[in-house]
Amino acid sequence: MCLVFMLSATGCSSVTNGKRIVRVATMQSETHPEYLGLLKFKEYVEKELGDKYEVQIFPNEILGAAQKAIELTQTGAIDFTIVGTANLETFASVYEIFSMPYLFTSEDAYHEVMNDTDYMNKIFSSTDEQGFRALTWYNAGTRNFYAKKEIDSPEDMKGLKIRVQQSPASVAMCQAFGAAASPMSFGEVYTAIQQGVIDGAENNELALTSNKHGEVAKYFSYNKHQMIPDLLIGNLSFLNGLSKEERKVFYKAAELSNEEECKQWDVQVKEAKKVAQEQMGVKFIDVDVLAFQKKVKGVQESILKDNAQAKPIYDHIQKVNKKYEGKDGE
Ligand code: GCU
């Protein structure tokens, strides 16, 4: 609280012992792949520019939940933040496209699009007016519903109150599935499920273990509605204030953090599934994904109709999707 207040206040100094303190916020815990990725970021920046910069990482929403952290990154109170594109949607509408349900039809297509640095950089640099710019992406897996009761089909969603991210497209998606959507920040979800304020939520497998949601929600249904990337966003004035050489270092550090995160992600998701199943008693359920897909056609159409920036990105992704159609491995 105090820290957030201090950061919100103007004129707060970010120089200690002659070094510029670079503040990086993440919503995740110290064991999460993103935190491990950020350690690489810190290590590289300090190896190359350690006489001038010290990178401090703030996990667990310490500097504020996603929406607050984005605002603080816009003002420069925080220099970098990792947030999902769903949380960026209301700040920069270009990111709404990634909340479209069933946008990617395979993990391969998702990874190819996100790893296409030239393509993604055009999107990343399109938010300059908002005061921030993304440097790289992190895998946040595939999102699925999990709840206190078993969801086998869209019909089971009727009457359920489900937490979604603070993303209007995700609210619309949840409603199209037949549930009541309850947008709230990530850190509030555990208690909300535990106290019965909501019946469940939607996320990747790590939410069950890293955030302990598997303690309070025992049914995880693989309906695979979204693959939403997380992004490392940086304050634009900070980035613009760097020399050419320094900027190169920060971008390289971002690239290294992406590589580490993606590697850790694959390992940790497998582990999370095992722990959730064997130690937390979570039941993983395979459902008819097509039945869920049919429910959200209207949501896909309305994003394309109402958001002029969405269509060209959608078309690009469809081309990549096509390349992997019919291949196994999902
Ligand atoms: C995932 C994702 C975060 C997101 C969170 C949420 O953990 O990586 O970016 O904020 O889900 O559902 O809020």
Automatic annotation (TrEMBL):
One of its GO terms (biological process) is transmembrane transport. GO terms for molecular function: carbohydrate binding. Keywords: Signal. GO terms for cellular component: outer membrane-bounded periplasmic space. The keyword Repressor does not apply. SUPFAM superfamilies: Periplasmic binding protein-like II (SSF53850). It comes from the Bacteria. The keyword Signal applies. This is TRAP transporter substrate-binding protein. It comes from Holdemanella porci.
